Amino acid sequence: SSRVVEIQSQMSERAVELLGLPEDRPCLLLDVGCGSGLSGDYISEEGHYWIGMDISSAMLDVAVEREVEGDLLLADVGHGIPFRPGTFDGCISISAVQWLCNADKKSHSPPKRLYRFFSTLYTALARGSRAVLQLYPENSEQLELITAQAMRAGFTGGMVVDYPNSAKAKKFFLCLFVGASGTLPKGLGAECADGEETHQAKFTNERTRFRNAKGKPVKKCRDWILEKKERRRRQGKEVRADTKYTGRKRRPRF
After folding, report:
1. Superkingdom, according to UniProt (predicted)?
2. 20-40: per-residue pLDDT in tens?
3. Domains of the chain by range and CATH?
């Protein structure tokens, strides 16, 4: 629908803006999950060149029919980004990276696929460039898994959240730096009612707290308990409701 197209091109515009590209020369960008090439159209309008990757041949056929200007590659980014080191001046991705969190085949391990994607993307990007990945995370665990693998692969940066106080307009952009770390751009509409800005989530190279190497929560922590309760609910068992006290340690004076 035209509404989807409109939102898609707004997000593409914002993603390219967050790349902070040099204004004096055309750049070569990678578009991950390029679909029918809507983001590519915007990149071309801005005078840059692009290569798009997508796992759907049907979507790429549409892009070919639309005679987009970029080059297209049918590939699963979970297998890695097959380009020479330093090929790209930037990477954007609209609504695609969260799919790597799904294990569609028995052999798929989301943490491994994410790490393969991020580590090969890191190599394919020129030093000092950025990747801006707009995504729709299902929950905070998914966000944490994605960012943890990006940081493991060497990226710095973090999440830029546009319109954090709006249910409809809220958008997540994972803004990643290669090599020299830049300052994280500000999210749009992030001022609170009293004029104060909300603090951006920053990610460091520390290992994420709740997960061990396999991407599973550490035993007995809150996440682990909630996941276990969720599994039992799915099995139709009686489970106590979750509250803010779930998984909290009692103070020693009990």
Report:
1. Eukaryota
2. 999 889 999 999 999 999 999
3. 2-178 (3.40.50.150)
